[in-house]
Structure formats: C-alpha cells, structure tokens
C-alpha cells in the first residue's frame, strides 16, 4: 500500500539538514509521496528505511507477463476495487482450454476455431489471448506432441497445464523462451513446479484451498526467490469463488496484504456451456485476471469479449473515433453528407445503418471529445458553429457539390443557425440511427 507523506516523514531522519534541496524533511517527504523526487536525494537514509520505502512503492498487485512480443499478455497491477474510482488497467486475459487427448483431426478443427475468434467491435479488434493445453492423457509424450501441433498452428501465448514436473520440464524444453504460464494442478507438486519455473523464468499459476494457504505459499515462494505467481481460485460455487476473488483484491489493495497481491485466475470447467458462459461473465466483472474456458464457439466467446471491452474501457475517457470525413460505399460528389459525433458507439451505429441502407454517403465525424449527440450539443461541442467550422476545415464544399448536410434529428433546433453560419442547406435526419435506411431511401438525389 502506498505510504502517505506523513508516513514517509516518520521514517526520515528529521534533521532538516537541507541536503536534499528542500527546507525540511517534511517537504521532502511530501514530494516523495507524490513520486516527484527520488529517495537518493537524501544521503542520510539508512538501508532498512530505504528497503521499507522501496517496498511501499511497489504495486499492491504484482504485474505478471505471459508470452513475448506483440502477443504478450500483462495481468495484475490493478489499483482500484471499483472501476469508477479510476479505471481497471489490464483486461481479463481469456484463454481456451484444449485437452491433449483430442484426436488429431479434432485438435486441428479446434485450433482452426481458435484462430477465427477475432472480432471487430466499435473500431477495436477483440479476441482471446491464451491457449491452455491440459494434460488430460497424463502422458508426457502426448502432451509434448500436442504442444508441438498447437505451436505450429496458433501464435497465442500458452498455458501449460502439465500433470507433473517431469512433463512440464519436457514441455518447457520446447517453449520456455516463449514465456508460457505454467499451471500447477496439485498443492503437493508446488515446490517442484516453483523450482522448474524459477529456472526457466516463466510465471506459475497455482491453486490453494483458502486465502491463508495462498498467503503461506506465496511467502514460501518469495523466500525461494520466486514471485511470478498467479492465484488460481479453487473450484467451488460461483458465489464462493467471487467471494475469494473479491477478498484477494480487497486485502491486497486496502490492507496492503503483499502475500495476496498477485493476479488471479479462474478455470471454468462446467460442462453445460450456457452455465459456463454465465459463470465466466461473473468472473470477468469481479475480478479474474485470467479466465480459462472450454468452449470455442463464437456465440459464447463474443459476449464475453464484449462484456470485457465494456468493463475495461476508461470510464472517464469514452471510446472515440478519429474525427474525419469517412466515405461509406462507392461515393460520388452527389452522395449525401451526414454529420455525427466521434463517440465510438454513436459513430459505428450510424455507420452500420448507412451501410445497411446501401446508399453511398459521406459521414462527417466531429470531434466532440467522445460525447454522444445530445451530450455534445449540451456541452457546446456539437453546435452550429463547430459544424460550420468543421465543414470548412475538411473542405467539404470541394468534396460534394450539393452543399447540403444531414444533421441528427435530436439537434433539429440548430438547423437555422447552422444554415446561417455555414451557408449550407440543412436537412434534418431521423432522431434514431435506426431510421436512416428509410430516410436515405427517400432522400432526394443531390
Ligand atoms: Fe531531511 Fe534527508 Fe532532506 Fe536532510 S536530506 S532535510 S535529512 S530529507
């Protein structure tokens, strides 16, 4: 837990010697709390105080990285319990479990499905991040062979769910440099797995039956010099698992419980797919850092990705589209020109309706700082003056020859003012984007 200025002051020598460049130790402490200065500026701080202050400056929840390069996944280092307090930083990494006893043809089909699980939503690419290979066969050679096939077919970071340390070592000989996440299924194997993971510099997820056991295990691993850990919440009722996830988050953030300050993982094994999706949604909301599921069906994965996208957007910074003029379809100088805001949801809803109308149009996307139509109008970001200026800025008089613009029905009240300020003819469109296909069908050419 971060120390306050006063907490830090209590640890300083309190001699006010000014060697740090500040008049008093208190002034220096206040700046240190804000991370505006370095502790090195004070030559009088002893080693024990230095260690204490350095430890206090570490994140309450450790950051763990899985994979390397562009597909690298980072989890943990969250700072708040509630999204509105700031934002959630690292989205739940969603992984798909593949059993190693699948026949080859079925494995290939599953890997093909996994490759296709990428979608575009409100201008962002969303998809799953991890493939978890589970050692259902309990045989090393089968696990390693299937691992080879997965690595050849899919470029996502891996989770190795090996049955034993021996199988794990054989798998890591293939892929340790890719920094897979290792999963330890049995508490009795934990020490051996920690040793292997430490040697291979790969992170380790392990399961414990209670918070006390998690705490004891992470302390023991820390003594062995290994801290790249993920806490796997044991199978239980959804309520019980949510309680554990919440307690781990709360105790690490609010009580400074370092031994629980690690990313969390939930494995959803439920055979009933609809039930599994509901459980997974609950764990994305609170507070799974990693989620492993067995389904690879797009109709199960897309809702989870959509939910995750919504939860992990910054609540103070709406998703925005770059302000610009976007041609939709095979436009000409006679194509209608519509205007909307750059709030992603608004923009993509309008775009979708124009596309479904099949009438080529220009869509002018205004910089409203990500606000929707009425909010932007009320905040004076989407008024006659701003639209008139944007028409000039993007030289739209050169783009279309009809000099008319369609505005959203909700801001019909600005039409006269906009005509005066821009010199363009203003056409009032429908209030809701869903009315655009019919509106565009009936809109006169030019
Ligand atoms: Fe205090 Fe250290 Fe600054 Fe001296 S150098 S005033 S002891 S904080």
UniProtKB/TrEMBL annotation:
5-methoxybenzimidazolylcob(I)amide binds at residues 340, 346, 370-373, 433. GO terms for molecular function: 4 iron, 4 sulfur cluster binding; iron ion binding; methyltransferase activity. PROSITE patterns: 4FE4S. Residues 1-59 form the 4Fe-4S domain. Signal peptide: none annotated. One of its GO terms (biological process) is acetyl-CoA catabolic process. [4Fe-4S] cluster binds at residues 17, 20, 25, 42. Keywords: 4Fe-4S, Cobalt, Iron, Iron-sulfur, Metal-binding. PANTHER family: ACETYL-COA DECARBONYLASE_SYNTHASE COMPLEX SUBUNIT GAMMA, PTHR36214. This is Acetyl-CoA synthase corrinoid iron-sulfur protein, large subunit. The lineage of its organism: Bacteria, Pseudomonadati, Candidatus Omnitrophota, Candidatus Velamenicoccus.
